[in-house]
Amino acid sequence: MAIKNKDGSTYSFSKPPQAMEQQTFWDKTEKIIFHNKFGEKVFREDIQPPLVAEPPQREVKIVDFKEVAKQVEDEIKIVQALEESKSKPLHEDIVEVWCLPCLEYAENVDELYGESYANVKYGEKFTFRARLLRIEDLHVEFVTETSVKLQPESVIYPKMKNRRWWKIKDMKEVKGYHVYLGMISDFQPAFVD
Fold it and tell me: How far is Cα of residue 123 from the mean position of the Cα atoms in its chain?
């Protein structure tokens, strides 16, 4: 059964234009003449690909190895001086940390949709000093004195250049110190004096 147009005629898929059906192709054996803008006649046989220029010759330079060795020694001394002047490694850094402590944490479940959400009550902000053990893109690990006790879901902000808020997720006690693990926080309070 044929597909019909709105006017009742038979629908046909696109065809080449009618002018293309009567087109004739050039005979490849004929001599073709190209005319450029200066009025010169150029034949197909006369057309040549452009010539590639040869690369320039490089000069050979004689190097004195004593001078090069002296320059390398000077660079090594500069690098050593820079390494000595750098600050302590990250695991030795002690930073000041802002904290918004979690006082109450309750997870509620929506009866209608079954989604869960958390209710967190925070206390007054305070600062403490911590030694960073490890800081990466998604988590931070630090040590505090035993006098500082942080609950899970507390929000911290180490005063560092990376400017990131962390939420305490876990705590373990190692040799009389508290080691905390923090993940990226979705809550970012303003720690302003």
Answer: 36
| Three-class HEC string of 136-173 | CCCEEEEEECCCCCCCCCCEEEECCCCCCCEEEEEEEE
DSSP sequence for 78-124: HHHHHHHHS---GGG-EEEEEEE-EEEEEEEE-TTT--EEEEEEE--
pTM exceeding 0.70: no
Give mean pLDDT in consecutive 10-residue pieces for the chain, a chain of 193 residues.
82 76 73 64 66 75 79 76 54 78 87 85 89 86 82 88 86 82 86 60
Phi/psi-derived region of residue 158, left when phi > 0, alpha when psi is between -120 and 50, beta in every other case = beta
What is the spatial distance between Cα 81 and Cα 76, in angstroms, rounded to a whole number?
Answer: 9
**What pLDDT does 150 receive?**
87
Under 8 Å between Cβ of 96 and 127: yes
What CATH topology corresponds to 91-184? Thrombin, subunit H (2.40.10)
The full set of domain ranges for the chain reads 91-184
| Residue 185, token pair as written in the block | 């926080």
